[in-house]
Design a protein that fits this description.
It is found in: Cytoplasm. It is a single chain. By secondary structure, the protein is mostly helical. It folds into 3 domains: about 75-175, Recoverin, domain 1, CATH 1.10.238; about 185-285, Recoverin, domain 1, CATH 1.10.238; about 310-455, EF-hand (Recoverin, domain 1, Orthogonal Bundle), CATH 1.10.238.10. It is built from 24 helices and 4 strands. The chain has helices spanning about 1-20, 25-45, 50-55, 70-90, 95-105, 120-130, 140-150, 160-185, 190-200, 215-230, 240-245, 250-255, 265-270, 275-285, 295-300, 310-320, 330-340, 345-355, 365-380, 390-400, 410-415, 420-425, 430-435, 435-455, and strands at about 120, 155-160, 190, 240. A two-stranded antiparallel sheet has the order 1-2. Strands 3-4 form a two-stranded antiparallel sheet. Helix 8 packs antiparallel against helix 9 (about 190-200) and helix 10 (about 215-230) crosses helix 14. The chain starts with a helix and ends with a helix.
């Protein structure tokens, strides 16, 4: 009976297989059906509907910038940005709130002092956090306390260290938001954008508190000019945001938030009030006829008054002037070039003036043309003129150009001697310094030795 049942089931299976229709689909079709069924059942399992409905669940992550002709959207974007920045600025601690925080910390210090430093325990730390206000809440956490906890036997932290931590965080937040303000402008910054940005910055920089409001426009012009002189070599009137953030200029500008910035740091910082007043004061002193512009005769007294007339002629031929006179913006370019002769942008400025025939290189004729003016000045001052042949050989030895007869701008930059070469050709004082470099070095060494003997 058992054998009969086995035979029966075998027959049934054979007939079923024989009667079943063969699946003639390709592998690709089978995989396509499998994918479709999987998507269908997965969507049902997730409780979703059609693909169109699923897309609605994805949050919007891209908002295009309004086009130039969409005036209303441009205005809306500017207003929204202004409101956002105002709200974020209100979240930062101002000077009065920082003073109140210091008062609370000092009031809740826990003895004994560690050396001359006042200390605070964790319980008192939390009490100050409750009284300091909502803006300070982010600083009064266990993590911050643990970060500042060192080797105090009573488990306390230094009040001064904590306050300095808060100050650094506040400054860092301000810097980040100011940089973000730049990033929101777009891919590039236009002249007007940068002027408005720096004008907004002035009230936030303690080192500029003493500036008269009447000087703001001149300060903004002075500050903006440095950005465009070095970062816009083609004079397109716009600068890439990434170039501004990559250079040190913005950091130099934000350094003016330091209320205790040293005198030396202020003098070396182009954006400081003393530096801006110095440059503008020089301009006013040169302007003898007080017409707000500089003639070539007035500009010849710049610095030590030893720039050659030939070089100044080229300045007035190539640079933007108004009826043969230079305005403050053009003067700023002139100052930036002469005060930063090691920088490629400054060398490009001076090279263009030296390249009279616009050939893209300086040959022996060009070098001789400018050095003749140096020789004439030496005669006027009763000095024996130096042979041009000797100077020419020294210049080519210093630069080592690819072409032994031509010096290109790139040759000057690559040689790292561009500042020396240009000084030799345009400034009697610069040439004298170069000629007497060994004597000057020896004198410096003698002075250093004398100072050491005195101590």
């Amino acid at each position: 009976m058992a054998n009969g049942e086995v035979v029966h089931w075998k027959e049934l299976l054979k007939r079923r297989l024989a009667s079943s229709k063969k699946d003639e689909r390709t592998e690709e079709e089978k995989k396509a059906e499998e994918t479709a069924l999987f998507s269908k059942y997965y969507t049902e399992w997730r409780g979703g509907g059609s693909n169109r409905e699923n897309y609605k669940n994805i949050p919007r992550f891209y908002y295009r910038l309004p086009a130039e002709d969409e005036v209303l959207l441009q205005k809306l974007r500017e207003e929204s940005r202004a409101v956002f920045l105002q709200r974020k600025s209100r979240e930062l601690l101002d000077n009065e709130e920082l003073q109140n925080l210091w008062f609370l910390l000092d009031k809740h210090q826990v003895p004994p002092m560690t050396g001359e430093e006042a200390m605070i325990s964790y319980d008192s730390f939390l009490k100050v956090g409750e009284k300091a206000g909502v803006k300070c809440k982010q600083f009064f956490t266990a993590r911050v306390y643990a970060k500042l906890l060192h080797n105090d036997p009573y488990g306390r932290i230094s009040i001064m260290q904590f306050f300095n931590y808060v100050m650094r965080k506040v400054i860092c937040l301000i810097q980040c938001r100011l940089k973000n303000r730049l990033l929101e402008i777009g891919v590039c910054v236009l002249l007007k954008d940068l002027e408005n940005y720096i004008l907004e910055l002035i009230p936030t920089l303690p080192q500029l508190d003493g500036l008269e409001k009447s000087f703001y426009s001149f300060y903004v012009c002075t500050a903006v000019r440095k950005f465009f002189f070095f970062l816009d070599p083609l004079r397109t009137g716009k600068i890439k945001i990434q170039d501004i953030l990559a250079c040190s200029f913005l950091d130099d500008l934000l350094e003016l938030r330091d209320e205790e910035l040293s005198k030396e740091s202020q003098e070396s910082n182009w954006f400081s009030a003393p530096s801006a007043l110095r440059v503008y004061g020089q301009y006013l002193n040169l302007d003898k006829d007080h017409n707000g512009m500089l003639s070539k005769e007035e500009l010849c007294r710049y610095g030590t008054g030893t720039l050659t007339g030939v070089f100044l002629d080229r300045v007035y031929q190539e640079c933007l002037t108004y009826d043969g006179e230079m305005d403050y913006k053009t003067y700023l370019d002139f100052v930036l070039a002469l005060e930063n002769r090691k920088e490629p942008a400054a060398l490009q400025y001076i090279f263009k003036l030296l390249d009279m025939e616009n050939k893209g290189y300086l040959n022996v004729f060009a070098l001789n043309y400018f050095f003749r003016a140096i020789q004439e000045q030496m005669k006027i001052h009763g000095q024996e003129p130096v042979s041009f042949q000797d100077v020419k050989d020294e210049i080519f030895d210093m630069v080592k150009p690819k072409d032994p007869c031509k010096i290109t701008l790139q040759d000057l930059v690559n040689s790292s001697q561009g500042d020396t070469v240009t000084s030799i050709l345009i400034d009697l004082n610069g040439f004298w310094t170069y000629e007497n470099r060994e004597v000057l070095v020896a004198n410096d060494n003698d002075n250093s030795t004398a100072d050491l003997d005195d101590t």
